[in-house]
Amino acid sequence: MIHWLQRILRRPGRAQEIHEEIQSHLEMRADLNAAEGMPPTQARLDARRRLGNSAHIEEDTRAVHRAWWTGALGQDIRYGLRSFRRAPVFTITAIVTVALGVGASTAVFSVVDRILFRPLPYPQADRLVSVGMLTAADTNEFLMGPAYLQFRDRQTPFSSMASFGFTSACDLTEANPERLQCTLVDSTFLPTFGIHPLAGRNFTASEDVPNAPRFALLTYGFWMSRFAGDREILGRSIPIDEKPTTIIGILPSDFELFNLSRVDLLMPEGLLPNQAGRAFARLKPGVSVEQAKEALQALFAEESQHLPPEYRPRMALVVRPLRDRQIANVRTASWVLLVAVVLVLLMSCANVANLLLARSASRRRELAVRHALGAGRARLIRQALTESLLLAVAGAAAGCSLAWALLRFFIAMAPNGITRLEQATLDARVLLFTVAVSAVSGILFGLAPALERPDAEALCGGRSIASFRGLLRHALIAAQIAASLVLLTGAGLLLGALWRMEQVPLGIDPDHAVTAHFVLRNTYNQARVLAFYEGLESRLNRMPATAVAIGSSIPPFGGTGGTPFSALSVEGRPRLPEGVGGGVSWRYITPGYFGALGIPILRGRTFNEQDRGPGAPAIVINQTLAQRLFPGRDPIGQRMFPSAKGEWHTVAGVVGDVRGRGLDQPPEPEYYVVRKHAPDEIFGDGSGVRSASVLVRSPLDPQAVAASIRANIAELDPALPVEIETMGERVRELTVGPRFNAMLLAGFAATGMVLAAIGIYGVIAFLVSQRTREVGVRMALGATPAGVIGLFLRHAARWTAAGLCLGLAGSIAATRLLSSMLFEARGRDWWSFVAAASMLSVVALLAAWLPARRAARIDPVRTLRE
Amino acid sequence: MVNSPKPADSLQGTLELLILKTLDLGANHGFGITLHIQEASEGLLRVEEGSLYPALHRLERNQLVTAVWKITANGRRARVYALTASGRKRLGEAEENWASLAKGVGKVLRFA
User: Fold this and answer.
1) How far apart are CA A352 and CA B98, in angstroms?
2) Which of A329, A477, A539, B30 pairs with A462 at a CA distance of 20 to 30 A?
3) What would the pLDDT profile of A154-183 be if each residue is shown by its tens digit?
4) Tens digit of pLDDT for each residue in A573-609?
5) Domain presence at residue B21
6) Distance of residue B74 Cα from the nearest chain A Cα, in angstroms
7) What would the pLDDT profile of B52-95 be if each residue is shown by its tens digit?
8) Rounded Cα gap, residues A84 and A86, in angstroms
9) Are the CB atoms for A589 and A622 separated by under 8 Å?
10) CB distance A24–B53 less than 8 Å?
11) Where are the domains of chain A?
12) Does residue B91 sit in helix, strand or coil?
């Protein structure tokens, strides 16, 4: 490549010709002088004096023939490449620095940009708001059916309002059945969001009523995968949960729900009273979110009269932009990443600046020589510019590749919950921006020395260091140390929080266990449900496994049945007033459940086969519930009833807590009821038991266990879709979010530290080379190598300390930003400051020690002679 | 800028005019042109030798002169320049310009 460039750009003939022409001029003048009687030497000298600086003249004459860019640029590039080859350490460091800055910041910004700044895929999405009531316990506002209808009919600030009634599993019950996600919305949903069907139509208000014939719109993905994009499907009827449903429309390919959940079918909600939903609205032109909220206050006050009185004071009206609602969870994390990116980018710029400043100082002599040899100042400036740009281009190219690789890496390892991540692509604007920032910093600091008038003094190797630039270099180093400390502290805090989180006992043993989850079809009647479970249990028990459990769900996650705490009655105790004490979860399990999950039995016993027959029912409660219901008493043998039906249950045992909702949540009160061999009134019509999970603990290969579970279920119902996961996978999902954040920030901190180390190394190495003579004199006068090293280390330590002080202030500010992401963060996190500061000091001193050691090896005799 | 056929400034223009006029008398090399200008002006004008060669090459590039290597009477190799047709045309224009400029300047100086 370089060879090819040289062949194109070099024109040896012309320069040689000009040189000869000037020489012939000099000779002819000398001939003339000699003819007039001058001695030969004087004749030649006079010829030279009359002509002036022949190098300048040759250069000026050559310049006549150059198109200004080819010749000069080619020469500048050649010269630049040559000088880079002579200083490989500088070159590689500079390129790596730019690449790290550009790569890391572009990749992360591409991710964050998607989340924070990109518009939602709806026309005028900034006019969309979420409307509803919010309790203290909930994070997302909701609106009950009647309230929604009142709001929709009487509101003034919105041009339209829409209701969204959740997404749930549904089955396509024809040959080759399929588990689908059906979302219920009202007829104004698509118009409010500004979505037009790709084909067909939206359902009308008259089709959106309870018990109406069923209609559905297909999403593009489902239409393609199931019906291969066949437009004839419009108007046809398909059985959904064995009810005929007419397809009336197809949604565009870019359709997505505001919560980005997967959806296959959009169906009329047919809003019933007592049905809670999410409500959205489009603001009328000129109406602000605050004005809309103000305008709704009266309606809200009226509607809250229908709420149970104890809820009223805790209920608030919420109107907020759709985007806020969508990104609430990842907002802090995104801002943290953004700050980290900016810090790394600034550090990389500071490094480039520092490297170029150091290099330029050592090149003052070279510049002066080139000037004396005929390079004009414009030429020298152009040369500096070319070299800076060359570095920027090389760094940017490396940075692009790095950014691309990092983005792949983020997508591969990010938790599923990160909004829109899989859509993230390298953003050209972002890339351009980061490249421009590094290029500008390179040009700025690369140009500075060339702009200075080259002085003749530099020719003699005089080492007058501009003290202002020295100060700037050190200030840059201190700033880098500060930024690096902020990153390190942040990463330390997040890692600490992650560590604490992973230390929290989950309450179950996740090893060697495979789970399967399924939902029986709605068409199963109570007898068939019972037959299914009885058959499944006996089949699973025949498997070669250590333990087997069937539960209405298996932690972590998984829906659990919920009962208000106030609904739990204890024999001989007055009932609590309604609505007090929050919720209690419960699970419907087989006796093997505790053994299979590794949940310890703390008191009493687990369920046995007698509990499953008719007769006095038993109940098992967890430790948290035991402490709340029976503080200071033995719960075993107490009688309580958890259900409205009112049959007394005897407490048979107390088991350990399970943190089913996440490690950063306190354990919930929970109780367990055993699965009976007969239809159980606890569920009323038995509908609640359709959804269940199976856990099989076995030392065998998980793949084989999974296949065996599938086969057993298929024998009972070949059309039943089953989701299989190992317990280990499910448990890891609990920490995947915090781990992702901590890993990212740790990556940034490491990058930052490397950059800071490079910076310090560069500056100290530069100082050493500048002060070689001084060190020689010191050593000649008796300074020891240790003393010389100390001289430079003290210098580095001073500026590192300055940076650390600055960084400490930044870290405290950063901790505030991070606090909401930190698990169990209490004041004791001072250690992460200390750890970060000491780590950084060690790295900084090490980076300074390497070049300082070179200074200690200086041979005083040689330097003094030079 | 190099491509533009117009003289960049009057100083350069003057040197160009002197070179063209000298070459109008016959082909010559750079040193010969220096000597001729000095002798013809009876020592009043001394060509800045440093600017002579860029000027010559500029004229060559604009195809007002051509250049070939020849051996001089003294046996030296020299690059000898000769006027082209467009060089001759340019000389005519330049002489006219100069004459009117000199006339104008003279009138202004005589006005008292």
Assistant:
1) 55
2) A477
3) 888 899 999 887 777 777 777 776 778 888
4) 776 655 556 667 888 888 888 988 888 999 889 898 8
5) yes
6) 9
7) 898 899 899 888 999 999 888 878 889 999 999 999 999 998 88
8) 5
9) no
10) no
11) 2-65, 68-122+329-463, 136-314, 465-505+734-866, 522-719
12) helix
